[in-house]
Amino acid sequence: MSDCIFCKIVDGSIPSKKVYEDEKILAFYDLEPQAPVHVLVIPKEHICCADAVNEGNVGNIAHIFTKIPEITKSLGLTNGYRIVNNCGEDGCQSVKHMHFHILGGKKLNGTMA
Ligand code: DGP
């Protein structure tokens, strides 16, 4: 999608601090960190949100979860972390390209909402 910030990060026209990349997914540091370690993991394919996951694109999302253990280890998150996905208006999703926040590096707040 030409007007999507994260598609531009995927194609390199917007720079990012990458922590992992392969043919299907990209992980990079969040611009506005909310924890000592705050990384975003995205499918390279433009999927707007959790609402748009289907049998045709779920492989890319599954791939994210198979790589999260490797990504978190490389970030030193050996004592746990939180994975957050915001979806739509009520979920306060600001970038409409599906992404998973990985937050860690300290004992996180126990509240979810
Ligand atoms: P969400 O609210 O779940 O849609 O989170 C979007 C996140 O994306 C937010 O934590 C800030 C981050 N973000 C927005 N624009 C950029 C950018 O251009 N580069 C990077 N690295 N992160 C961005």
From TrEMBL:
InterPro entries from the entry? Histidine_triad_CS (IPR019808), Histidine_triad_HIT (IPR001310), HIT-like (IPR011146), HIT-like_sf (IPR036265)
The record ties this protein, via Pfam families, to: HIT (PF01230)
Please give the superkingdom of this protein's source: Bacteria
In its keyword annotation, does this UniProt entry include Hydrolase? yes
Motif Histidine triad motif: list the residue ranges. Answer: 97-101
Name the EC number(s).
Answer: 3.-.-.-
CDD domains (UniProt xref): PKCI_related
Which GO MF terms does the UniProt record name? hydrolase activity
The active-site annotation reads H99 (tele-amp-histidine intermediate)
Question: Which SUPFAM superfamilies does the entry link to?
Answer: HIT-like (SSF54197)
Q: Which UniProt keywords apply?
A: Hydrolase
Q: Is Hydrolase included in the keywords of this UniProt record?
A: yes
The HIT domain is annotated at: 5-113
Q: List the protein's name.
A: HIT-like protein
Q: Which organism is it from?
A: Ruminococcus bromii
The organism's lineage? Bacteria, Bacillati, Bacillota, Clostridia, Eubacteriales
